[in-house]
Amino acid sequence: MSKRIGLTLAKPQTSAVETAEAWVSSRLGADKENPGEPAAPPEPTRRLTFDLALSLHRRLKVEAARRDKNVADFLREVIERECPQAP
Q1: Do 67 and 61 form a contact (C-beta atoms < 8 A)?
Q2: What b/e string do you get for 24-52 counting C-beta neighbours within 10 Å, with b at 16 or more?
Q3: How far apart are CA 37 and CA 30, in angstroms?
Q4: Averaged pLDDT score across all residues of the chain
Q5: Which of 32, 43, 74, 78 could form a disulfide with 69 if both were Cys (CB 3.0 to 4.6 A apart)?
């Protein structure tokens, strides 16, 4: 009695460098004014850490969720609105 075993070819492996390069390229996006050109590098960022009362933290999370946003994106929008750039 013979037994048949189905074999499938493995997908070609991409190197870690190729994978990293693809990820970086996808994160930069494209320049909207000049399609096909890479976007300008993002502005450097700073991390903020501060204490909030539990009740205020809860309200913040609820309001961000109500707007279907994460807390960081919601706070960025509030800060942009409340602290406009000087002309």
Answers
A1: no
A2: eeeeeeeeeeeeeeeeeeeeeeeeeeeee
A3: 6
A4: 82
A5: 74
